[in-house]
């Protein structure tokens, strides 16, 4: 910690100035008291959760807590960095720090998986792991699963066996939900239930292969952490390292993460979790809302509960409607969000003819809002599934309205990025077959058979690096082979300082890039971006670990949003929009079959999560919220001018009893009279008699 400036004559500001009473209670709970019991903070949407958590951490430090003994768990590395920045800002202000002074760092702020990787590296020798273990990303894990699937003969079964990606998803669900394989198959993968015994064989082989190669997958970081906490001495050691454990977004944790926390702090002393059961929407990742609902009762001394219900984002009419929607939930922590932001404008329920009409309506509203002074960046279109926005995307493009849609190919999924990272991973762990298998085949004249023979030699050798140098490839590969051997030797040089490793890898990979890809120039820009990212890490191991655990969505995720126009609007799934906010929000397809999805109505729990999804979408809006209800949907697989369609009904989550909280749009104009009241009477005609005469 930097030396602090002498206290000024003026009274320093109180660290909790600016917090409302509930936020302050959460920041002060148990501070300075021994022991501080467990605390659950129910933080409603837009209630200043991040600020409250940051002020609590700062308050702990100001009252003597050692920052080295504070564990702060978030769900993204970026969130951890932001939390540390906010804590530092509070400390700077309260401690009267001079320019250039730095507040105490939080070395144990990070994601569950990132912290797990650090603890496993630290305890590797005690649990039978090599300290040089490497971590597979999802692509590598799928590839390993695919190889084993083929070796066990499951790629040649008479009936369709699950693909490698599905197999990995099933395995991951079993690990994170801590549920038996049969139960997972029945609930989430019923079409795979017939393969239960075969999948058990595959998963056993997968676990053994990872252990043989000293690699861990993403799920292992939690699984190994939880398993080593089952040893009393290790649990006591790890739990004793931290006086305070704070967890953000607790409603998004799975059973394994909850088990880790309870093993680290079995009495709950020093444990604080923050979340909102009304925003628990990630069950497809094995998260369970039961963790937050059942948290207070997990301890001999039940956890205290503090509710943050003052909203700083939305207007009161938007909150009234949102409160009413979530108020119909079967089970929840009761809270009604409120705000000082009064408004006469209710959220709107917009009825349109079909999806094309929905697209036209959205485009019209977006342009009208823009003309009224609302930038495109302050407007967002949200939807339940990615395919729901297709018509809107076409209409926005036709009208030259720029937009960015969240989703698509991730940066680390690009083949040239995977090539380079595979070389670095192979140097870090010579036993990693997948990385070596990929790198070897980058050379001309090296195919799967030659690569497998090389890796077999390295596996059997006491010194894998020497085996690589001694290997004799075919004649077609010999010229390029020398360069690979030299690059690998250089990468394994003791004392090499990062990012010199990356420079070596880039020099070797450059010619391969030019030979393998026609668009090498474009791809090189991605490699340059990777080099810039790498410069922010202290070692090759940290770079590979952090990039695997918290990858950027795309190149622009690290370098800033692409400058496609001076302004652009946002299109996003509701899941991706969580934690975001916009002045104007348009929610598509607010009908049964879309919200709730017809794929998520198999149980009461699934339906309740769909209700929470709508609530999350509604609470993203600051001032203008429009829920759009198409009246009919055209059936796919018909001619372009076909008229086969089904009718849509407004979502069950907005029953007629809540309709008064919304403004119905568009308002139908009154029908014009058919004739003037003062016009001459028209003769009566017996149409029925005429029809009878036809037969």
Short descriptors:
4 domains; 17 strands; alpha/beta; 27 helices; Rossmann fold; globular; 695 residues; 3'-5' DNA helicase activity; single chain
Walk me through the structure.
The protein has 695 residues and is α/β, with parallel strands linked by helices. The protein has 4 domains: 21-118 and 228-308, Rossmann fold; 134-213; 316-408 and 560-665, P-loop containing nucleotide triphosphate hydrolases (Rossmann fold), CATH 3.40.50; 411-549, PCRA, domain 4, CATH 1.10.486. It contains 27 helices and 17 strands. Strand 2 (70-74), helix 3 and strand 3 (109-111) form a beta-alpha-beta unit. GO terms for molecular function: 3'-5' DNA helicase activity; ATP binding; ATP hydrolysis activity; DNA binding. Keywords: ATP-binding, Helicase, Hydrolase, Isomerase, Nucleotide-binding. Residues 1-30 are annotated as: Disordered. InterPro entries: DExx_box_DNA_helicase_dom_sf, DNA_helicase_UvrD-like_C, DNA_helicase_UvrD/REP, P-loop_NTPase, UvrD-like_ATP-bd.
